[in-house]
Amino acid sequence: MRARIICTILFLLLLSSCAGQSEPTPLPADTEIFLQRGPCFGGCPVYSVTIQADGTVIYQGTRFVEQTGEVRSSISQADLQRLVEAFDEARFFKFKDRYNEPRGFTCREFRTDAPSVITSITIDGTSKQVNHYTGCIGFSREDKLIALEDLIDEVVNTEQWIK
């Protein structure tokens, strides 16, 4: 009898832990992630994506992309949660607002003719935007910022519209 009770308790614990993993924690209704890739002197793709709290993705293609204009899509809540966690892991709110100063305090090396990327997040009433000129090379948190920018593109699958 005692073994049966222990097995029942273990089974219920297992069920409750699995149930908790299947549904991601709901994000605040104001959650929004934004990525904009700007022009360069060449044929750099120019577009933006906005990801809303319900997983809605709004792509806006401008130049040097296969799909111009607005396209709506969606991502799962699990993917949105993954992006929010990536912002947190990168300590995005600790980044400077701008990484685009030539030969100044921010950049160790500066290259011309590179696009800019604007990345932002709003969550639970708090917003942060970072303007990153990709020709501004060598600031201490660059790898984390670039990885975050690329992760947004990957999760949204912007390649389908850019090609």
Q: Would you write up a description of this structure?
A:
This protein has 163 residues and is an alpha+beta fold. It has one domain (25-162): Mago nashi protein. The protein has helices at residues 2-22, 77-89, 142-156, 159-162, and strands spanning 32-37, 46-52, 56-63, 69-74, 98-99, 109-110, 116-123, 126-133, 136-137. It has a seven-stranded mixed sheet, with helices on one face. The protein has a two-stranded antiparallel sheet with strand order 6-9. α2 (77-89) runs antiparallel to α3 (142-156). The chain is globular. Residues 1-20 have low confidence and may be disordered.
Distance between the termini: 64 Å
CATH architecture grouping:
2-Layer Sandwich
Query: C-alpha Rg, in Å?
Result: 20 Å
Q: Give the CA-based shape.
A: globular
CATH fold field value: Mago nashi protein
Count the strands? 9
Q: In the CATH hierarchy, what is the superfamily?
A: Mago nashi
Strand neighbour order, sheet with most strands: 4-3-2-1-7-8-5
Structural class: alpha+beta
Order of helices and strands: HEEEEHEEEEEHH
Number of helical regions: 4
Contiguous runs where pLDDT drops below 50 for at least 5 residues: 1-20
Tell me the domain tally.
1
Q: Report the helical percentage.
A: 25-40%
β-sheet strand percentage: 25-35%
The main β sheet shows up as: 7 strands, mixed
Mean pLDDT across residues? 86
CATH uppermost class: Alpha Beta
How is this structure best summarized?
By secondary structure, this protein is of the alpha+beta class. It has helices at residues 2-22, 77-89, 142-156, 159-162, and strands at 32-37, 46-52, 56-63, 69-74, 98-99, 109-110, 116-123, 126-133, 136-137. The longest helix is centred in the first third of the chain and has 21 residues, at 2-22.
